[in-house]
Sequence to fold (675 residues):
Amino acid sequence: MFTKILIANRGEIACRVAATARRLAIKTVAVYSDADAGAKHVAACDEAIHIGGSAPKDSYLRWERIIEAAKATGAQAIHPGYGFLSENEEFAQACANAGLVFIGPPPSAIKDMGLKAESKQLMEKAGVPLVPGYHGANQDPDLLQAEADRIGYPVLIKASAGGGGKGMRAVEKAEDFAAALQSCKREAINSFGDDAVLIEKYVQRPRHIEIQVFGDTQGNYVYLFERDCSVQRRHQKVLEEAPAPGMTPEMRAQMGLAAVAAARAVNYVGAGTVEFIVEQRADGSMNFFFMEMNTRLQVEHPVTEAITGQDLVEWQLRVASGEPLPLLQEQLAIDGHAIEARICAENPDNNFLPATGTLHVYGLPACATFDRAATGVRVDSGVREGDTISPYYDSMVAKLIVHGRTREEALARMDAALAQTHIVGLATNVQFLRHVVTCPSFAQAQLDTALIPRETAVLFNQEKVGLPLAAAAQVAHALVAERALAAQADASGWIDPWAQRDGWRSHGASSRAFMVEFHDAPHTAQLTRLHGGGLQLQIDGQTAPLHFTALANGALDVRYGDQRTTANVYQKGDVAHVFTAQGATQIVAIDALAHAGDVQGEAGRLTAPMPGKVVSFAVKAGDAVKKGQPLAVMEAMKMEHTIAAPADGTVAELLFAPGDQVTEGAELLKLETAA
Ligand code: ADP
Ligand code: ADP
Ligand code: MG
Fold:
């Protein structure tokens, strides 16, 4: 076995490889770009070498630099992860030439499977079933059109060098073929530098089912069963699961043997995935056809690890160091059901537009990286709270993997784990993933690659938390934050906002009004102290008692009227990010209340929230004030409003005197903040 390896990748996969290496007492060397100088994968390895600029072509794709780094640090082998150099035959060859082991298949196998058209010719010879189509070398447009006509519409034009869902065009009828061909070739030459295409029958309502295979240097092969990756957007995977629902043992064995035949045909070594497109017949039977082989470890490999109990990176390292496969086919078995969700920085409601930004809050479900037994939840993540998602790399932030005895159990765990995933700072697909996981057709395993477009109505723009509950959660959070600030909690956990020396101190009033903004619409709210104790919140025409209790781990038990939820609230500037078991939402409160728990301390809103009278100033010019400290009290509409300091600072000037009438938006005092 190796004693030191270099990991030629970044993000979650670099961290994941490092974790197995550490467990096997193998030292690790990270490589990193300018943008990744402080990245998690650098911290996860024993050593790290800077290899260049932020753009992949200046760093993670510069293989001469990477090979130099391996030699300089005494690494014996290079793990390429996925993406970047993992399917680069030249790089695999250069490693060998430099006396380094490439942890992957031989360069010849990468080449044989590199182009979709050529690999199909090889697979045809090996007797692996193919989608009816044309994958010849002759690229004459008239011939391609004639082939498409012969295959019968709809057809799919695919860039032979394509990958990542790019360079594909579905064509419905003969008249559209020429234009689609041109546009496909344009995209192919731009993205892959090669405009050769192939044509396939477009399979209707297909499923994507792939087989994990492994080969060793002794010529042994096994398959580690299947993964269903049918839930896709734009031909890219969103959720993956194993085993595939509805799979029979006979079909599993047939697909497994076909995948092993594919691997054997190219003398494959190491981890690989043979992807099949599966046609679902009206009688319930399924037909499978070879699509392509990915000659690397795949993003979704953890679901296979979960159902087999094996560590595939350990297998890769053992095989690459010359050991035989750890297990024989008959020693492998499926245990339970696993699902993976890819958490991406993107906005599903805006056509999945990728998002960048800082992870101000990055709360993950309770689990350990390889925790299958204890909680059934695993998170593979390449970032930490405070890290930035830059525009240079993939938008994938983390992978959530759950395991259960049954698919139902795994589904329930996934929904719970997604509910506990709290990300503030940039848009993510977490709530969208919850909608997919809970939508009836996914829950009932009616899987095909059109699931997302078909279920648009229930998947997009779904708000699961209403205004009253969001406002109740925010008020509860602000009061708890104030309590923490004032450190004046009553032993029972009950908080009396009027009993505190802070922004909520009452000057005789027993009711406070404030404004909230929910989905860009303003609403008035009013919090009232009841005579017999307790609070009442009026919002959106509804009036009901508000009760809340602070739980461990920062969560709140919130009861508003007959609604009850467990919520985590994170205040960022004016915006409260509310996460509940039902879903997540955002709400803005325009009041001192919003600033009480403010973690950011933005510069001031020291203005009158509405027309009224200045009751008193709690400070004078020159006073040093703490964030959250009350500065002034206003009265309007028979209610008092306290203006609190948004940040630590010094009072520069009072602009009014008690008793003065002020207009809405009038500045009441000037505060100089430190920041
Ligand atoms: P699969 O799930 O079949 O492996 P994908 O195409 O979704 O296929 O995943 C591989 C892709 O991930 C690569 O094509 C690349 O765009 C992207 N990628 C490469 N390196 C990384 C990385 N370090 N972290 C996240 N994504 C990466
Ligand atoms: P990539 O290299 O981009 O992963 P694939 O050939 O693996 O390309 O195809 C990606 C996805 O496109 C598949 O998972 C499937 O959803 C869809 N697809 C591919 N071939 C067909 C086909 N013949 N009919 C219908 N859908 C297809
Ligand atoms: Mg593919």
Remarks:
- The chain has five domains: 4-103, 132-201, 336-462, 467-589, 605-673.
- The pocket of adenosine-5'-diphosphate (ligand 1) is lined by residues 9-13, 81-84, 163-164, 236-237, 294, 298-300, 394, 396 (CB under 6 Å).
- The mean pLDDT is 90.
- The two ends are 54 Å apart (CA to CA).
